[in-house]
Design brief:
Elements lengths: L5 H9 L3 E7 L5 E12 L6 E7 L2 H9 L2 E8 L2 E12 L10 H11 L7 H10 L3 E12 L2
Antiparallel strand pairs: 1-2, 1-4, 2-3, 3-6, 4-5, 5-6
Amino acid sequence: MSVDLDSVRRIVAADSGLCTVAVVRSDGRPHTSLVNAGVLDHPVSGEPVAAYVTYGPVKLRALRARPATSLHWRAGWKWAAVEGASEIVGPDDPVECVDVPRLLRDVFTACGGTHGDWAEYDRVMAEQRRAAVLVTPVRVLGNF
């Protein structure tokens, strides 16, 4: 059963998906950073997920060990948060039948991004070994 992410989609559209992501470090402390994240359908299950692209080794190492994730968006005084488990899809974390370059593009556009040269985008993402992080929501909060 999927969780309704329409409120998150509205907030993403209002501010290019700019949000804070929090994951859990090995000592239990939060590791937070600012990312652009959006909502799209999972490339395998088809269920809606929150997603962002990263290459941060600290975040990826933490997510591999402890997938619990929280994402928080705001636009003006409206806010939404998604809590759930992360799945990494990228060059070091392949998923059968998933085209990683296509998924990275899909995440980018789900955040409101546009690009004039997708071949260049693909080249940079591959060079930086970027990965998509897909968060399957278990709870959505906010004042939407």
